[in-house]
């Protein structure tokens, strides 16, 4: 019997040791080792399709990001700039392609950052949830939030292209729609003029009663910052036929399902929750909601429909 317990202790010790090594190795690989493609020399972006790679963070070379661009030939300084946020497939080049013709017709400079992650099927915290927390639950500094990366890209563009624009617009679809509405909630000081959150899978409700990413509990959001968020111009853009939870990656946790049975219902309920919150606090709400007829979970069709909300 004593021999059995000694053997059991050894087995348990070995299992715990293996878990510690795996967790430590995973943390070091994900959050300490350098990540991303090789940084390119800073230069002005060319007409048509182009790309560059820059460091994601202002004071760190630990992580880099590839940024795809499309610049119409007639685009000039002070013309409109639009960030396009890809879905969960992290396919920024495909999203850029969906916007090329729209960009030419409307003379808009398209900026499509690619939040590359080979584990994107399992990890969502680094992109659509803003990188507020690591995969292991520890907090990241605000300068490493994914939303700050957008601001850093905008500064890089201004510096390398002699651009004097003070603001930019942002469109996101699916996971990108999650990214956009959370950026508005968590970083109202961002230089966004018009935001379009399209076909998001689930939402961060403007309440402190729920843990992030379902609510704002344990985030830096205050009444003062939330009021500023409500003052930003944002469109919750939904597809009339985006009512099939089998399409794409659809979160089915208990808290997500409480938001609705499908994306169309969840978007409507999110806007209603924001409206109730604003009314309760006697605040203005500059957000709007719209539904595109005969369109489902399709980023190309939603992109074509979104351009009219950019005040072009």
From TrEMBL:
<feature type="transmembrane region" description="Helical">
    <location>
        <begin position="12"/>
        <end position="31"/>
    </location>
</feature>
<keyword id="KW-0378">Hydrolase</keyword>
<keyword id="KW-1133">Transmembrane helix</keyword>
<dbReference type="GO" id="GO:0016787">
    <property type="term" value="F:hydrolase activity"/>
</dbReference>
<protein>
    <submittedName>
        <fullName>Steryl acetyl hydrolase</fullName>
    </submittedName>
</protein>
<keyword id="KW-0472">Membrane</keyword>
<dbReference type="InterPro" id="IPR029058">
    <property type="entry name" value="AB_hydrolase_fold"/>
</dbReference>
<keyword id="KW-0812">Transmembrane</keyword>
């Amino acid at each position: 019997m004593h021999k059995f317990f000694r053997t059991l202790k050894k087995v348990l010790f070995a299992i715990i040791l293996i878990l510690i090594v795996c967790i430590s190795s995973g943390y070091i690989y994900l959050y300490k080792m350098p990540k991303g493609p090789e940084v390119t020399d800073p230069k002005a972006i060319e007409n048509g399709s182009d790309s560059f790679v820059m460091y994601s963070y202002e004071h760190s070379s630990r992580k880099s990001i590839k940024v795809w661009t499309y610049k119409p030939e007639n685009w000039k300084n002070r013309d409109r700039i639009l960030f396009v946020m890809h879905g969960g497939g992290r396919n920024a080049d495909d999203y850029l392609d969906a916007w090329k013709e729209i960009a030419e017709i409307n003379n808009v400079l398209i900026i499509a950052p690619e939040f590359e992650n080979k584990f994107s099927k399992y990890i969502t915290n680094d992109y659509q949830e803003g990188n507020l927390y690591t995969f292991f639950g520890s907090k990241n500094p605000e300068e490493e939030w994914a939303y700050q990366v957008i601001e850093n890209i905008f500064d890089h563009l201004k510096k390398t292209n002699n651009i004097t624009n003070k603001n930019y617009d942002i469109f996101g679809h699916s996971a990108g729609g999650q990214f956009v509405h959370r950026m508005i909630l968590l970083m109202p000081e961002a230089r966004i003029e018009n935001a379009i959150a399209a076909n998001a899978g689930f939402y961060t409700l403007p309440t402190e009663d729920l843990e992030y990413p379902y609510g704002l509990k344990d985030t830096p959001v205050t009444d003062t910052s939330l009021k500023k968020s409500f003052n930003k111009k944002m469109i919750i853009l939904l597809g009339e036929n985006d009512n099939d939870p089998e399409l794409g990656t659809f979160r089915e946790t208990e808290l997500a399902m409480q938001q609705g049975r499908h994306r169309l219902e969840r978007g409507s309920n999110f806007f209603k929750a924001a409206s109730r919150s604003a009314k309760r606090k006697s605040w203005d709400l500059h957000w709007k909601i719209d539904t595109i007829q005969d369109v489902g979970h399709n980023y190309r069709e939603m992109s074509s429909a979104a351009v009219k909300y950019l005040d072009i």
